[in-house]
Design a protein that fits this description.
This protein is mainly alpha-helical. It has five helices and two strands. The protein has a domain at about 60-135. Helix 3 packs antiparallel against helix 4 (about 85-110) and helix 3 runs parallel beside helix 5 (about 115-130).
C-alpha cells in the first residue's frame, strides 16, 4: 500500500498519462468543437481537415444505415414455405449487423466531438425520415382492393 502512495505522490504535479504515452491525444470528457479528434480508431482522423470531414461523412452514413436496417423488410418471414431456420439465421445476421453498426455510432459519439454528435443525430433523423416515417411510404392496399391512408394504420 505504501508503494502505491509513493508512486502517486511522486507523480503529483506531473501529467502521468503524458509520461507513459507521450504521443497520445488527451481524451475529452466534455463536448468540444474542432477537427483534432480521435474517432473509432487510434490516430484517425488525425489533424487533417479532409480526414475529419471524411470521418463525419462516415459517421453520418453509419447512422443512416442503422436506420435503414431498423426499418427495412429484408428479413420478414414469407408464407411461401421458406425454410424457417434459414429465415431465422438471416434475421439474426441482419440484427447482429445492425447492432454492431449502432455500437460503432455510439463509440464515435463517445469521442465527445460536437461535429460527430451532430452528424450522428442528423444521419439518424434523415434515415428515419427516409425509411421509417409515413412521409415517403406508399399507401398499403386493403383487402377489398382499395388503398388505405397510412395515418390510420398502426405500426
Amino acid at each position: 500500500m505504501d508503494g502505491m502512495k509513493m508512486n502517486s505522490t511522486a507523480m503529483e504535479g506531473t501529467n502521468a498519462t503524458a509520461m507513459v504515452h507521450p504521443h497520445k491525444m488527451m481524451m475529452h470528457m466534455t463536448f468540444f468543437w474542432g477537427k483534432n479528434a480521435e474517432i473509432l480508431f487510434s490516430g484517425w482522423p488525425g489533424t487533417s481537415s479532409g480526414m475529419y470531414a471524411l470521418a463525419l461523412i462516415f459517421v453520418f452514413f453509419l447512422s443512416l444505415i442503422v436506420e435503414w436496417l431498423s426499418h427495412s423488410n429484408l428479413y420478414l418471414v414469407k408464407e411461401d414455405g421458406s425454410n424457417r431456420v434459414a429465415v431465422g439465421l438471416i434475421q439474426t445476421l441482419v440484427h447482429a449487423i445492425r447492432v454492431g453498426l449502432a455500437y460503432m455510432v455510439m463509440l464515435a459519439v463517445m469521442s465527445f466531438n460536437g461535429g460527430v454528435f451532430v452528424m450522428a443525430v442528423v444521419g439518424h433523423a434523415i434515415g428515419f425520415f427516409l425509411f421509417g416515417s409515413m412521409a415517403l411510404k406508399k399507401a398499403a392496399p386493403e383487402a377489398n382492393g382499395k388503398t388505405s391512408d397510412l395515418s390510420t394504420m398502426s405500426c
